[in-house]
Amino acid sequence: MATTGNNIDSSKAKIVHGDGGYVLEDVPHFSDYISDLPTYANPLQDNPAYSVVKQYFVHVDDSVPQKVVVHKSSPRGIHFRRAGPRQRVYFQADEVHACIVTCGGLCPGLNTVIRELVCGLYNMYGVKKVLGIEGGYRGFYSKNTIHLTPKFVNDIHKRGGTVIGTSRGGHDTSKIVDSIQDRGINQVYIIGGDGTQKGAAAIYEEVRRRGLKVSVVGIPKTIDNDIPVIDKSFGFDTAVEEAQRAINAAHVEAESMENGIGLVKLMGRYCGFIAMYATLASRDVDCCLIPESPFYLEGPGGLYEYIARCLKDNGHMVIVIAEGAGQELLSGSCGSDKQDASGNKLLQDIGLWLSQRIKDHFSKEHKMTINLKYIDPTYMIRAIPSNASDNVYCTLLAQSAVHGAMAGYTGYTSGLVNGRQTYIPFYRIVDKQNKVVITDRMWARLLSSTNQPSFLTVKDVSEEKKEEETLSQMNQLSNNTEDETVSNPSVK
Ligand SMILES: Nc1ncnc2c1ncn2[C@@H]1O[C@H](COP(=O)(O)OP(=O)(O)OP(=O)(O)O)[C@@H](O)[C@H]1O
Ligand SMILES: O=P(O)(O)OC[C@H]1O[C@](O)(CO)[C@@H](O)[C@@H]1O
Ligand SMILES: [Mg+2]
Q1: Whose Cα sits closest to atom 1 in ligand 2?
Q2: Model confidence over 89-106: pLDDT tens digits?
Q3: Are residues 255 and 192 in the same domain?
Q4: Where in the cell is it found (predicted)?
Q5: Is the ipTM of this complex over 0.90?
């Protein structure tokens, strides 16, 4: 049996091979494990808003390539099923009993997704029974539910947070599936980050083992942007925009004083996307430190040397640090192995630690007084409503999720790949975490925009590149050999 690192059985992967090295990583469908299900004409065909649209229904063979940059001799590569409404659906409106749950940390846009799931189900498919599960996964078996209607959700998108609450920990697969079965729920919309998607994959496996006609659908959420495959997660843009306010404040403080340093700590437990994009957007940042790129303080090429140069040249500087950066420098201090209820590492405050180190170093070694202001906006970048572009993104994600469930697909995450809405099998989402690749162009762009040292030796760079190549070769190999092969695709 082939399993991913998370014990998700990937041997059931539906891989379809086509001409020219075309590979479709398809998502599960009810018809894979339940026979003779009736289908119905999609009610959208009679909806005045959609019936005028030329080719509104997605073609059964439509798929979206994972890689858009190719060479003339490259194989066509991996594709995902294109999201959208299908001609035939597997549920009648009054048969659907949907539920929505939000898990993990907050993220701008959660309420927008909830709103659009409810309105999409009501307005597009005439579904009237939509339950909100309160307080995350544990809410399935230990909390009340809320009946969600278009009226109830009408202006929740203007508020931060999630109207149905969220939590970490408390995932008990069999209790959750018992609750789904007992309540007669047949569409489960699960909004959350990498941990949540692992939980969703486990729920799907159990639902399938019990042979239930229940669609299990994930909607990827995380301001950290650590979910692989998708272009980016919703709320990320909003968080980066809000982070600008902290960086601006740091810059104003720093440039108003002699030897002023503004130090901003931003969220990013295992990856530095928020810090990287906020730095690139701001142009006021002189140094960005992220978990993927270890840094050191002392000696040639170190952080102290760079700070001294910036202060000498400009009189001030701004540093952005992701909360997960430099944790190895802090190791040994107490509390480093603590975890939250979901098993995520609890981090120590690298920003506070670094502020003290910088002050001590410059007063002792350079006899200089540093005016350092430490700004930690923490929850302020995620406890806000989503901006306009995230709102549109949330709407498309939610509507795509609904179309897929109505069409009988299950075990998928609704996600944007190369600007197109797709259905991605869970095993692809939970397999690994998305990280900033420091040998990619984006990190090089950042280094050339800040002029900061890379903190890497030539040897480090070549090792990093080798590691990346090995990883991508392994991925290629597993796609070619591990999974069940279906030639002559009969795609739905
Ligand atoms: N491997 C796993 N299997 C089953 N459930 C899991 C797993 N990992 C996490 N979960 C559950 O998923 C939920 C959310 O996980 P977590 O707290 O890690 O947040 P997340 O979804 O990764 O979001 P974020 O990191 O953006 O805050 C929790 O209820 C947790 O119990
Ligand atoms: O909400 P909590 O448990 O304080 O967790 C904070 C974490 O959540 C995130 O916002 C998303 O995973 C991280 O950036 C941060 O480390
Ligand atoms: Mg997470």
Answers
A1: 105
A2: 999 999 999 999 999 999
A3: no
A4: Cytoplasm
A5: yes
